[in-house]
């Protein structure tokens, strides 16, 4: 159209966004409440206005709780439009602005943990403080120039570097797994040797109370170390790390989650928490560790230790980093379970939305290398250098025969139901505990106290169980290193001690492979229930802790109970209770974590039996269905409790009728192609947002300019920092050549706008954003449906999506948070979550 | 925004597309040559003009060879713009239109095979005659209404149906695999029993020539049947079907590839071609068969047999169908190799670009069910009902010990190099043969003759090899059913006959497991070379034929040769030649097909040994790298020979600087929101295209209207067929309610425009396209780069992408063919392929 009405442009009209003329309907009013930012927004805006610069909208309530009112109206409108089937809807929404300035009480682990408000009210909220990662390439002119200047050898070098980094990721992750394994083995040896000699002595000298005290002391000290590392070292290292990695791969910036410091605390912490006798495994933390390795190696530096190799500079973008983190996560799974294929599938299931053949192949390479490195090192360590039979930290041991028929399959499905129920129970208990914990256990001291309390109680419970449940098994039926005789006759030892007096991994193997008659049903029940409760309590304590092993142990225990029961009833048909222990373990784990294909493959690989895949899959499927009826899996539950705006796989149901208008944030702060430095600085100071559409002046009513491109906060900061002030000189960039490398060098820690040193003269200059902006980012028409926006976002890993009207004028901006608040209810309806401050 | 200047709209300005004012540069002229379509375009256009209807552009040279001139200029311009770094480029391209009207000589297998021109000139071409599939949802008002009207029970029912269909796919595919296996076993038993008794007799009576004749006769008859089924039954059933399925999953409509008729011909054909002694396997065809099962079951009907159950109507869209075809392909792999996880990865590697957790889980379910069904049925058939140890058609047998050390790994990598070279040789020979075949063997009779010739020569070669290579092995070392003594002493039998006198699957197992000393190195070499040549010749003959088994057999033979050699040199270190046979098999197969992760997993699952994964992966990786140096894998090679516009995984290198302007087709035929029936009919008759942007009248120079939405040919045909002529009446649709079901009912065989029965009165009416068009399809700015468009297309499975300018006016349309013609050269540069007519 024309530029003639440039003078009459109306900026800063945040209160009215009429689309009537576009959709054929009457104007709909979205009343948006202005919100005072911490930054001096109002000041900046008025200053800008005084300076004659169009101030744009000085507040854009993206992802603030102001949405409450817009949202309700948006959904309502959408429904109205469909029901009436006539486009002319005139609808004025209720303007009920909810109390937005909720008291924030962030605990000392910082960004990850949810706010107290949430735990108190129990309502579902989303936190606005998580930033997103941007997996989309900014295809500006610098990028095009770089792409064009690259020779085929450059391309090959980059490709080679990718493979090299993936190789290194595999090797380092495998080495870390080896380190953890050997340390735990040695420390556990010391602990259980002392304990055993004490116990054996005390049975005769009646000093069992001292044995108990020694046990408590061991647990106390080890767990105290683990907890100190977590609480004082790096709080984000607590737990399994899988939820955090899941969020990272989903595109959410969880602060400090892939730092070297986190890795160190995680690795050392998990050592001590496992040796400390807690109901935890070392597998989940391996996945997190692998991811950190992936992130660190690919960037060629460790920010925690101010250490920069200066290599692999090309990989310093969110998208490249994500690929390597995927590889690291896969390598972690591979090393943890000896399941390289499972690792690849885990990385894909949890992370990558866009399947890429080359990437998958490299991830597989990382996984394989990781497994191989672990097996190789363990072979050397154990003095059989060419024995590569230990590709994972956990092994279910070798099953001679895992046959089944249709009757078995039916029983397995029933066990899946039990696993689903028991998993849901676990999750529900843990959810309440977590809420309680984040309300009352917020101080560092409190967290330490809880950790050592759990450690002590675990020791006491174990001791009491071994003391009271007196089932015995003959020596030699198990490869246990320190069998405890307790009150058993000579030549036999306590079978309860076989479960509690060794690391949980070894206990799982015992349940899977010990011969018929080793355990009694009552003994297994007596073990199962307290252990379930302790494991529930343990997950969430401030120590690095994996959930796989305790889940498998609980499941294997009741599964073996089922097997023993069936063996008693039909001794000819059901001969092997170990098979049922395996299925029970799968059912329990599936009921808790609700992973699907990757867990199936991990278990198939860990059992080393392809033919037993179908039963495992059926059990996991049933457990997931049953469990999902009661709530989400534990990882998703913790993500929800942390109020993270995670995007699920599919758009919520009934999202077809919700249009971009209802989803987007508006008003939008826009910049001009040739923009004054002072205005950029003001906007950056006033606004917390990360993406700014670049527009030209041809405005219509209620829009924010003709869409030309998108520029991000980081780019603007870099431009200002490099003083690329061309003042409209077309030859400026020839004299001041910049390349993408200059931007990547600062990644990912761009300076804040307050750190920039700009003189008064600088502020009066102007920048040509056209050279640096993304000239053709993805965009949608305002008529676009939520479902479509969702698929675009999820499929391509976007951070910003510009919404335009039929004249290509910017009318809104969609971010991850705008999308994440739409969820499907149990009844298939659409609901909208609130944002906390 | 307004429609007032509707009268002054200028349609049909195909020769000038100026963007100067938008990009800040001077206008660039794209001179586009008009091309006479087979349809009476000119007539229609002039008739329309006479009737006062804006004729639009009567020719839009999308995907025609007219691109030659645009293309060259586009790339050149892009480079110019980057090099000069100034936007003001004025560049007039050479208008050299190449000879476009090439003589088309499509052979009688129809659409799949490439044109003779191509084979003759050897240049790379793309065929314009392949239609694309549309995996994007058309989110029109009908869709929104349907989505809104659906209860949570509807959603659950659909989900349940999905699972049900995937279960059925698994069961039916497994049953088909069982049928093939049993038939081949029985037929092979008859053949080899007769042959053996004849041979045993003739050794004494010196009538070996009759034995040879009998062998030839057997092969001749069986292969004749297979070939007749293919040539007369369904030509697209020839070959392995993997390239065709790969294309289908990529989004290309390969005609008749998922029909029931194809399935029948494929299944029966593969039986006879395997029993006919050809160097073929039954595994590739299983993948194709599974895909047909997936497509057929999900649609609830078989078009070949005019049979419609009327169920699963919701699944009648391209996107849903693709999901089920993926499941079918995975089930096929699972049944063929007993590799359910490999099946899932195959479906993902070859097909799905968007990874979806739910879908993957269902695909896995199909795979598992398929393996289980096959194992279950085979167990029953063999009289051991609960033995589920045969989950696949091929099994590599049980390896007792597959240990390796770093030295082994190095040797394996070298074998990977050999596999890559030998695979490249195979592919090059096959490429030349295929070109020759499609030039000279085009008649049905010729194809039949070739098939039986190959069969006879295979018999003669086998016979000569058994006759001349006289290495013997003791009886009982192999589980061969019909050992042939030939000139061996009593108690021994010919080891060459162990390779040639049974089905290739059994021969592979012999090479993997026979004890040391069974085969001689000379014997293996004598076997390897002729068999390689025969296998090369066989792949492409008009019979259903799998490539996996012959490749594995060749590789296992030379691999075992390597193993024997090493065993002779270092008898203590390399004790097991079977291990090297396995690696050789992997190397050869990898060198030929170049699949990566799925092949690794398939082989890991087929060997049943997770620990041996790393060597297999290393070998496949090396073989792929070496092979890729000489050319593509055999499936991609056949796809290229067929000139199919397949989209690779990643955009070609150096595509950053190519803008949408250079990629898109222009001019574009646009429709108005309220459009006259006569004009729609004329456009549909005159144009072969499938997508038409819907615009409003607010035009700028060189553009085609303000973009409002996109309507497809099929939708238009349905609208016309249903006579939804509202003539501007806003209440029309209330009186004439339609739903998406009405559109799905006709899917996928929409009537042609000529089949519509429209009266003169009908033609004068008008249609409101607004209700049926997609109101917010994906679109890009004309400044968007090729790389970005590519990712959008590939990631979301699009068929059309509208290109708009900065005023949201349509300036072009991008289709798959526009993208597929851009390829990277060996030097990393961008090249553009030509389209054939």
Automatic annotation (TrEMBL), chains A, B:
Q: What is this protein called?
A: Chloride channel protein
- The segment annotated Disordered runs over 1-65
Q: Where are the transmembrane segments?
A: 163-187, 208-232, 324-347, 359-381, 402-426, 446-469, 519-541, 547-570, 582-604, 610-627
* PANTHER family hit by this protein: CHLORIDE CHANNEL PROTEIN CLC FAMILY MEMBER, H(+)_CL(-) EXCHANGE TRANSPORTER 7
**Listed PROSITE patterns:** CBS
MF terms (GO), sorted A to Z: chloride channel activity
The record's principal subcellular location, in a coarse class, is membrane
Q: One Pfam family of this protein, by short name? A: CBS
Keyword Transmembrane attached: yes
Query: Where does the CBS domain lie?
Result: 664-727, 773-830
UniProt record similarity statement: Belongs to the chloride channel (TC 2.A.49) family.
Q: Bias category Low complexity: which stretches?
A: 41-65
GO CC list: lysosomal membrane
Q: Where in the cell is it found?
A: Membrane
What keywords would UniProt list here? CBS domain, Chloride, Ion transport, Membrane, Repeat, Transmembrane, Transmembrane helix, Transport
In the UniProt record, does the keyword Ion transport occur? yes
- Membrane topology value: Multi-pass membrane protein
| Signal peptide (residue range) | none
Name the source organism.
Macrostomum lignano
């Amino acid at each position: 159209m024309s530029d003639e009405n440039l003078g009459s442009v109306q900026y800063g009209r945040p209160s009215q966004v009429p689309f009537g003329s576009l959709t054929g309907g009457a104007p709909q009013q979205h009343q948006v409440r202005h919100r005072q930012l911490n930054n001096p927004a109002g000041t900046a805006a008025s200053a800008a206005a005084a300076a004659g610069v169009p101030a744009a909208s000085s507040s854009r309530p993206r992802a603030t709780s102001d949405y409450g009112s817009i949202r309700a109206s948006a959904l309502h409108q959408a429904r109205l439009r469909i029901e009436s089937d006539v486009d002319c809807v005139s609808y004025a929404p209720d303007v009920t602005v909810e109390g937005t300035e909720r008291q924030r009480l962030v605990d000392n682990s910082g960004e990850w943990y949810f706010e107290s408000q949430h735990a108190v009210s129990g309502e579902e909220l989303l936190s606005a403080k998580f930033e997103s990662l941007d997996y989309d390439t900014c295809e500006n002119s610098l990028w095009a120039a770089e792409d064009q200047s690259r020779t085929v050898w450059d391309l090959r070098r980059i490709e080679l570097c990718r493979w090299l980094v993936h190789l290194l990721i595999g090797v380092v992750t495998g080495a870390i797994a080896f380190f953890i394994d050997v340390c735990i083995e040695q420390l556990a040896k010391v602990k259980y040797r002392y304990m055993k000699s004490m116990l054996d002595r005390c049975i005769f000298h009646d000093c069992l109370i001292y044995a108990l005290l020694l046990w408590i002391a061991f647990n106390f000290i080890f767990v105290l170390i683990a907890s100190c590392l977590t609480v004082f070292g790096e709080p984000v290292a607590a737990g399994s790390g899988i939820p955090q990695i899941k969020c990272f791969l989903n595109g959410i910036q969880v602060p400090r989650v892939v730092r070297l410091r986190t890795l160190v605390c995680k690795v050392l912490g998990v050592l001590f928490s496992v040796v400390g006798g807690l109901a935890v495994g070392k597998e989940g933390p391996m996945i997190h560790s692998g991811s950190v390795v992936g992130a660190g190696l690919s960037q060629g530096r460790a920010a925690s230790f101010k250490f920069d190799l200066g290599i692999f500079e090309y990989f310093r973008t969110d998208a490249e980093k994500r690929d390597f983190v995927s590889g690291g996560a896969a390598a972690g799974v591979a090393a943890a379970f000896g399941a390289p294929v499972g690792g690849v599938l885990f990385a894909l299931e949890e992370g990558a939305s866009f399947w890429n053949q080359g990437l998958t192949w490299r991830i597989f390479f990382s996984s394989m290398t990781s497994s191989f490195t672990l097996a190789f090192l363990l072979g050397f360590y154990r003095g059989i250098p060419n024995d590569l039979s230990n590709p994972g930290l956990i092994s279910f041991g070798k099953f001679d025969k895992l046959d089944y028929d249709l009757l078995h399959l039916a029983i397995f499905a029933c066990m899946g139901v039990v696993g689903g129920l028991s998993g849901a129970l676990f999750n529900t208990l843990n959810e309440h505990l977590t809420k309680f914990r984040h309300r009352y256990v917020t101080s560092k001291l409190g967290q330490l106290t809880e950790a050592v309390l759990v450690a002590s109680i675990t020791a006491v419970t174990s001791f009491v169980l071994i003391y009271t449940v007196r089932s015995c098994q003959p020596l030699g039926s198990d490869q246990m290193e320190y069998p405890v005789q307790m009150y058993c006759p000579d030549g036999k030892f306590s079978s309860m001690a076989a479960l509690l007096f060794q690391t949980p991994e070894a206990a799982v193997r015992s349940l899977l492979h010990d011969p018929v008659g080793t355990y009694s049903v009552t003994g297994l029940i007596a073990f199962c229930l307290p252990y379930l409760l302790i494991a529930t309590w343990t997950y969430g304590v401030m120590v690095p802790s994996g959930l796989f092993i305790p889940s498998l142990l609980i499941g294997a225990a009741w599964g073996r109970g089922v097997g023993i029961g069936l063996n008693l009833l039909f001794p000819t048909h059901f001969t092997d209770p170990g098979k049922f222990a395996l299925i029970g373990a799968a059912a329990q784990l599936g009921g808790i974590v609700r992973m699907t294909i990757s867990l199936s493959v991990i278990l198939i690989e860990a059992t080393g039996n392809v033919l037993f895949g179908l039963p495992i899959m059926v059990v996991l499927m049933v457990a997931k269905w049953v469990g999902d009826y009661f709530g989400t899996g534990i990882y998703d539950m913790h993500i929800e409790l942390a109020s993270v705006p995670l995007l699920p796989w599919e758009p919520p149901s009934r999202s077809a009728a919700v249009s971009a208008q209802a989803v987007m944030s508006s008003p939008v702060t826009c910049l001009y192609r040739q923009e004054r430095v002072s205005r950029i600085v003001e906007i950056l100071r006033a606004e917390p947002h990360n993406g700014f559409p670049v527009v030209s002046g041809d405005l219509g009513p209620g829009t924010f300019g003709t869409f030309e491109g998108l520029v991000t906060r980081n780019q603007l900061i870099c431009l200002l920092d490099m003083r690329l002030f061309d003042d409209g000189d077309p030859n400026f960039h020839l004299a001041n050549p910049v390349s993408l490398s200059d931007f990547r060098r600062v990644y990912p820690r761009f300076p804040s706008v307050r750190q920039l040193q700009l003189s008064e003269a600088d502020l009066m200059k102007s920048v040509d954003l056209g050279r640096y902006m993304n000239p053709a980012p993805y965009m949608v028409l305002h008529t676009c449906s939520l479902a479509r926006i969702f698929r675009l976002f999820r499929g391509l890993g976007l951070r910003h999506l510009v919404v335009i009207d039929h004249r290509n004028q910017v009318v809104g901006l969609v971010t991850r948070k705008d999308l994440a608040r739409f969820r499907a209810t149990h009844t298939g309806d659409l609901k909208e979550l609130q944002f906390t401050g």
